[in-house]
Amino acid sequence: MQQGITKRIKVVPIIFSLLLTTGYLTPMLFSRAEARDFGRGSTRGAARQGNRSGRQGNRQVNRDNRQGNRQGNIDNRQINRDTRQDNRVDNQSGRQENRQGNIDNRQENRDERFDERQDFREDRWDNVDDWRDERWDYWDDWDDWAERRFWYGVGVSLVAIPATAIAVSAANDNDEEYYYNEGVYLEQEGDTYIVIAAPVGTVIPTLPEGYIPVSVNDASYYYYGGAFYQETSGGYLVVQAPSGAIVPFIPDGYTQTNEGGTTYYEYGGVRYQPFYDGGELIYQVV
Fold it and tell me: Per the confidence metrics, is the pTM higher than 0.90?
């Protein structure tokens, strides 16, 4: 039992030593831990503060960049608006110039067409006047020839024929013989010679002087003393009077009729209707 007590006595100092040691070391350990904790807290705080400053700087840089981009975009949009406005103004001016140019061109074209039509009308009337003058020259020539030369109207009776008369016959009447002299045709009746209309189908070697060219539907004829001729092999053939032919006169010996208020003249079996052209009385075959 004494040994047990002795052992307890020995244990007590050991425990007490451990307690003292623990009491001494514990504050130191806590101090060192706090120091370590403070060191670590200071480092982390500085890091966090650095990170915050960095992030703040980055955010400021980003804001500045965004602000710069916005301002750049605003400037670009303004430039684009100004460019579009300039383009619209230029296009409007161009369209206006084109419209004015087209108006001027159309007006010039209208003026040119009007001048051309006016020139055409004047040329046409000049041609008509020339044709009339030429036609009346023929007619005047025929009147001059008729006054100076041998000429008798249909129905006139002669006791003798001119020495220059020639015998002719119509192609469709070989039994009949006629006499021809300077546009006048005669048929013998007993001891006299009667002036007749030109027999259709008769061919004469030459046209009488003073004949008048006549055109009907692009066909060419020659008119003299109430007879119409067309050129053929061997001379000139007496043909039917073409409907629509216009002549300046009808030889003496014609007859006059009135139908429905319209006056007609007939000579040699051909009917004519008179009317005025350019103040001159002319006759058309109807």
Answer: no
